Amino acid sequence: xxxxxxxxxxxxxxxxxxxxxxxxxxxxxxxxxxxxxxxxxxxxxxxxxxxxxxxxxxxxxxxxxxxxxxxxxxxxxxxxxxxxxxxxxxxxxxxxxxxxxxxxxxxxxxxxxxxxxxxxxxxxxxxxxxxxxxxxxxxxxxxxxxxxxxxxxxxxxxxxxxxxxxxxxxxxxxxxxxxxxxxxxxxxxxxxxxxxxxxxxxxxxxxxxxxxxxxxxxxxxxxxxxxxxxxxxxxxxxx
Length: 239
Known about the structure:
By secondary structure, the protein is mainly alpha-helical. The protein has helices at 2-29, 32-35, 38-54, 56-74, 78-88, 90-115, 117-124, 132-137, 139-149, 154-159, 168-199, 206-210, 213-237. The chain has one domain (31-237). Helix 5 runs antiparallel to helix 6 (90-115), helix 5 (78-88) packs across helix 11 (168-199) and helix 6 packs antiparallel against helix 11. The chain starts with a helix and ends with a helix.
């Protein structure tokens, strides 16, 4: 038992070291001011388009692989979804982001289930105990709805199912299909941003940006998704 705990501690430390190295390498190449500047985004947009057109399949595979690593190390997915739409467009971007996020989330779930299950139960079991019966009644359907509703930070929503012992198959496909509506909207927004940048040499004003159909339609879709998620949550989680 003590040996098992030591192994978990060592692997957790290795995880933290890898995460620290990942962040150090990333910010060694790019500063925050660089990655938020319009010129940086536009110049790299042209570079990404040329690389993508040269070897589409390889870029798609590398993006999915990067997404998996990103989710495992950092946990959150919103930037990835926007970048997927930016690079691949809303349709292919949705598929690549969905598979990358789902595989990454599933691996993170497996990691949490083995290494930090006790910690998660200690912190969250009392708060979410009322969901046990709902998951037992129809695990896949309820987990699918859980993913669709959202409202919980992505990092936390990936590991909370440890409380309910979700089967790996249900976790994977529930995540894949449940997250697609959110991912599609995010990828559409990323694709819209790419089109605006392609059409404008200088940074457009906020008014011009928000009035572009490629921008405001995904935002409207996102607001509708929030309302639907709230109604689902109210009906299923509170009744």
